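Fold it.
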Amino acid sequence: MGSVVRRFGVSLVAAALLAVPARAAPVPLPNAKYEQPTIVMQAQNGQRLLDDFRAFLKINGATKEVIEKIDVQIKELLGEKGFAGIDLAKPIGGYAYLRAKLEESSAVLVVPVTTEKDALAFLGRLRIDAKAESKAKGVYELAGGPFEHGLMGHLRFHDRHAYISVNGGVESLAEPDKLVPISRLVDDKETAVVAATMAGARLPKELTDQAYPVFEKLNAEVDRNAARGGGAPKSMPAFLKELLGWSRRVYDLAVADGDTLAARLIFDSKTGELDTEMVLQPKAKSALAADLAAFKPAKGRFHQLVTRDAVGGGWLCLPGPIPKGVRATGANFLEEAIPMIGKESALPVELGALFDAFGGIAQKAIAAGELDIGAALTGPTKDGHYTAVAALGLDDPTPLVKLVLAIGKDLPKEFAEAIKLNAYKIGDVAVHTLALEKLVPAELLKVLGDKAALNVAVGNKGLFLAVGPNAEAELKRAMALKPAETRAFDTLVNPAKAKTLAEAAGGDLGGFQAFALPDRPYSFYRADVIGGPTLKMRTSLVQYAVWMMLAFSGTR
């Protein structure tokens, strides 16, 4: 595989993976009789899992009533004795064997228990029956609960732990000395809620090869859809095929040079943030290792628009190198797709030319491997109004400047009367305004102010938009920003301020009305890709707190 493919493949590995830690698979014990597992996992002790779950909901706005409802539901499930039988002070372990035929793979969950009698009683409260196996002394066959519909489960008690085998059969637990010891599964230094590590060398080649027919089927599907035609951009098939080709090359690279793939679920009890982290550890001195060392983080200006006192905001930058073929076809796709949006909108035909221009802007930026977009909402002022600001990086804004000036002369009367070209300047950059009082709904003017105007500036290597009482100040701030490293994508929100904004706009908050939402900014969803000794991808899961709270509060 060529160095160009390897180097460009790095960032797509991150996009293809889903969450991971940097601890290696356990080192085999000398003379160990057990088979080394493909995957090992561990979770924090049961009490911490319960405490973190409650803290996650509480910090993210769950009321006392919601927390109490959770406790009631647990009691209804487990009865008065609750978790009796499970040692909540010790961590949980597990391991899995992936086979050439995936259906023959198996997993073992290793749960700390107090006594065998109490542990069996706990299973009974979960409606799981344990029947002594005649084929192997000390092994129980499990039925009911998750094992009710064909899932094969067996149980063995060993070293004050319950070894629960799924799909492994009686033989997987028949000999105690062939069970992986809990000491080989649990790392006391691990701080993640749950962590798992897969060893690349223990993956059957027959299993990894099963991905290739999938690539072929996807390529064939793209060809079939292209033959049918339809309303999609004509450049879409070429773009999709480049993406699939890149994906396959990256998959080759990861399989050949990947040492371990690790996943972690991380909870910060101070901020309430819940993240997944994925880490690909390359083999030492491999081509993949060299590429990761050269991997560059995302860099931009407009992530800095989002300050700690903002109601919310977000940004997008492109991390790392992307192959020229993917950039070129993706750029052509956007150049064709964006104008189509303008044609389908209800805007005047003259404004449709802006979509054509943005298509050209997107084409140039993506082809060059550069994308820098950011936006933020601040407020309220003492009058209860908010200001929004957004910016898009442009290498050469001159064509857009000419287009804005030309469009202003030919718009329909209601738009032309609202536009003021060259209303003022920020440095050498002219700012044009569009009065909104007759063009937008009254509910929006409640938020932005009765005399709100859209302020547009093109220059200083960017397109800048702002609306609201502090529009001019926000434009000045945006234009003064300097490039800096950042995560690739982030969307932040201050829940308490967002709730106040929704109320000001007259929105129906429904079940959210009862939430004690926190007054602080945090990432609703973010994604980051980091190179170096490993390839690390981190994404947030905080948004799921919303759905959890709605579920437990009974809101639909």
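Confidence is low (pLDDT under 50) at residues 1-25.
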